[in-house]
Write a structure and sequence with these properties.
Ferritin, 79% helix, binds fe (ii) ion
């Protein structure tokens, strides 16, 4: 093989090595986004979740106030209390970790929720139907579990979250039951 050809091959190998290194960095960065959460990331996640729970508590409150179905109202009151307890627990944990709760759900999401949950024009069946078709329970629970799985470095928060996920499973199950009952 000529010297020129050898040089060309060496150069090509050099380029290839650089490309592989670059690729590996990108893969590592991607894997990092699935790795353990830092305390700052945990606080941010908890705060976002807390804001959603507080909004849920308010929304379910508006539904209870306009609810015309006795059995539904009973379940809603329990779900509302769970949402409120979650918001409080998350707030406490954020503070224990050195953060301060600050996030709010954006206004349009809040308005949308209150309009739907607190509507006096929609029936309870219509509300249940709209709510149940707006999300997939399994996806929500899986997304939350995925976050909990990344909290191995903070087992207190991890199991606080896992207990909350069990509660969410109850609430979502109740909504499904209500859907089966009212929308059959
Ligand atoms: Fe919730």
């Amino acid at each position: 093989m000529s010297q020129a050809a050898l040089t060309r091959i060496e150069k090509a190998i050099g380029t290839l090595t650089q490309e592989v290194a670059g690729l590996r960095e990108r893969v590592d960065a991607l894997a990092g986004s699935q790795g353990p959460l830092t305390t700052a990331e945990i606080i941010e996640f908890l705060d976002r979740f807390r804001a959603g729970e507080a909004m849920g508590e308010a929304g379910i409150g508006a539904w209870i106030a306009t609810c015309q179905t006795d059995c539904l109202r009973g379940g809603l009151r329990t779900a509302q209390m769970r949402e409120g307890a979650h918001a409080l627990l998350l707030e406490q944990r954020i503070k224990e970790l050195g953060g301060s709760p600050s996030q709010e759900m954006d206004e349009s999401a809040q308005t949308q929720m209150m309009d739907l949950y607190g509507s006096t024009k929609l029936s309870d069946a219509e509300k249940v139907d709209k709510i149940c078709s707006s999300f997939d329970p399994d996806t929500i629970l899986q997304q939350l579990s995925d976050q909990a799985d990344r909290m191995d470095n903070d087992q207190e928060t991890q199991f606080l979250l896992r207990s909350i996920i069990d509660d969410e499973r109850s609430t979502l199950g109740f909504l499904k039951q209500a859907h089966d009952l009212l929308c059959a």
